[in-house]
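call fold(seq) -> tokens
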Amino acid sequence: MSTPDAPGAAPLRADAARNREHVLAVAREQLRRGAPLPPMKDLARLAGVGTGTVYRHFPTQQALLAALGEDATCELAVRVRAAAEEDDPVRGFARVVTAVVRGVLHDPAVRAAVTGAGPGCAPPTRAAVQLDEAVGQLLRRARAAGAVRDDVDADDVRLLVLGLAAGLAPVAGDDARVERHVRVLLDGLRGRA
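ret:
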């Protein structure tokens, strides 16, 4: 990504863009290892850049999490688009719901992407719009195949996934339990025959 987060902002110089991406990569790795985001000065040290460089790109940890969430949103959009194009939309929908529940449980960037969506949230970014379009396509196909009730929309699914993940947080490491609860959610979303 060679542009800053602000819409309409000038593109970053190549070295600034590399520094920004490197800081994001280091922060992402910290989170993937289960570590909390370190203070910005420690993040700068871990990334091998100056503290000013980190603050120039991410004035707060919230801004850093938002950028990580944007990256996660792009990745989710790719996954959802691929699932929407699968021959079996029921399997594709189940795979996406499972991946998002696990992502919300284990990846703060995915959690930021999913919680930052929906009515009443900040204006959607380009990645969020792409994700919404992909989710819409996946839901239409899943509905047509009977995997999702007609009265359930994308925001309902998002809220149900977030609620399930919140309930599972204390047992997030119990894969069998997480899988069982995701199956229960998927069964509840099915259209009535």
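The chain has two domains: 14-59, 65-189.
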